Write the structure tokens for this entry.
Amino acid sequence: MNYGSKILNLEEMAIHYQSQGLRIFPLLPGDKRPYRKGSKGYYMFLNAKQLIPSNDEIRSFWTMYPTANIGLFAGSASGVSILDIDVNEYANGFDTLRDAGLGHLIDVGLKIHTPTGGMHLMFKHTPIIPDYGNQSGTFGLDFRNSNKGYSLLPPSSAVPKYSQGGNTFVEYRFEGIEPYEFQKDLLPDFPEIPDLNFFNQLISGSRKTKNTNIKKRPYAELDSTFLPPDSFKAKTVWTQQEVNKNLQREKNKNALKGQLGNSKISQFTNSQSKLQQLVSEQGDPYEGDRPLPKRQARKAAKGLVDRLRKKNYLQVPPSKHCPYHRVYAKYQIDGIHYWVLLNFNDKFKPDTTLPRVQESQDGTTYVKWEGEMVSLNLNERYPVEEYLSKEIPPPSSSRNK
């Protein structure tokens, strides 16, 4: 990246921003998104919420990923507040400021031009700018003043969100200075404004509350056996197409429950001990006899249905053949899909570069389950097409997961 006679690289710029006391972290190259969970980049993303990264951490990461973008957590810890002005088909942040008599902020703040044609205004930390807020679709303004949200620093680049010209990467750039000239001492103080609560009023005013008891998913003429508790029956508020979608969703969910051997997942949410036992047997992070809070219990029960809907896993409850829960993964062998028993005694934490299915040097096949690589018992396999027509027999060995 050429800036006059000086050639910049993202690693040196990350070091420069870190020397200024900014909580910076890596983002995907040419993108605004963090690295995926479990990766070193995501660890640095989380770590930056608490403290400034070290020189060694920065050099180690950017040496491996030299094109990674540079993200920033603004706020009191970094000593920076950012007002993000956006221009899109719904709103124009420049007009919002001018209409409110705050157009002078555009002339005062240190400007960063963004790929979308908008602008970030940087100031020394001020509590007048809200900690966090996304009002770009309503007022064309976003707020970054804490670790709840982040922004990008030059010379990071991204494809403009509203671009029609293909994958053309555009760099973030300061106005009036080059990135290597950035100093926190250059940041202006936030000027006085007539209404100190103006930006907070934008946030509260953009939240539309509905004074109604209508649930998100109403149902019309739906048999009570298919209805979740406390559902709202609507006959006129929602279109018939929307109601039909909800009807089909609930029928599919009940069909999946039937595939579990008529076990009623909804009952698990009201019986924490049963759910605790279930998730522990699956290798989830809830261990011991500690009961689950009601919210986590509902989430875990919902997860069972979600996993089944993806058709990647089959969960078989205890039966007359087997006293404990079993989990089967869908695995293809010679063009045929089988349900293959997972062995939770043989598992390890995967490296982020490992594929979803991996074969080790000793010939053991592993699949990714809940963030761990779990081995397959290929001796226990049943064609997918047949698992509904008969109950899967118990495992040949007597080991418990």
User: Anything to note?
Assistant: The chain is about 25% helix and 25% strand. Residues 316-386 form one domain. Residues 114 and 172 are 5 Å apart (CA to CA).
